[in-house]
Design goal:
Layout lengths: L6 H20 L4 H9 L2 H7 L10 H11 L13 H18 L3 H7 L2 H11 L4 H15 L3 E3 L13 E3 L1
Antiparallel strand pairs: 1-2
């Protein structure tokens, strides 16, 4: 978890990323392709930093940057997830980063867009910390490797140990 960023600002960044994912549907981008491109890009790496001016420029600016830098990775049409699903996914991915300190690329490896879409009906009403724990448990069960201990959003070490890619 990034202790340099106050909780209210972390929540604002989660909301901004949720709105960015919603905006992808309004632009007509295939959801899986958009999310993969974003989560594995320098754009999301900038969102992972303690401070980057782009974090505060808003979802419209972030979308413009995506279209400039990642246009060859984005595709229109295809399957477009529902607005609520997209918002939750964007919000939870950013929350996950703040909860564990993991980078967006590592988070996406554990929970790609299809996984997030499939668990949305069951997980979207859970506390975000619990949803992240469940997603990590699921990944760990399928991919044994090095153990890590994530941190909760309040900075305390979790009592659970997960496997990490």
């Amino acid at each position: 978890m990034d202790d340099d960023v106050p909780k209210t600002l972390r929540l604002a960044l989660c909301e901004t990323q949720g709105r960015l994912f919603e905006l992808s549907a309004k632009y007509g981008f295939d959801s899986e392709t958009f999310i993969r491109a974003y989560m594995t890009s320098p754009v999301s790496a900038d969102m992972d930093k303690s401070f980057h001016h782009m974090q505060w420029a808003g979802e419209g600016y972030i979308m413009e940057r995506m279209m400039d830098e990642l246009r060859d990775q984005l595709s229109k049409g295809g399957e477009i997830y529902g607005i609520e699903t997209l918002h939750w996914m964007g919000y939870l991915y950013r929350h996950w980063h703040f909860q564990t300190g993991e980078k967006s690329t590592a988070i996406y490896k554990q929970a790609p867009a299809k996984v997030m879409r499939n668990v949305y009906p069951m997980y979207h009403t859970m506390d975000p910390d619990m949803a992240v724990e469940r997603l990590k448990e699921s990944y760990s069960a399928r991919h044994p490797s090095t153990k890590v201990r994530p941190r909760s959003c309040d900075g305390r070490d979790s009592k659970k140990t997960y496997l990490h890619p």
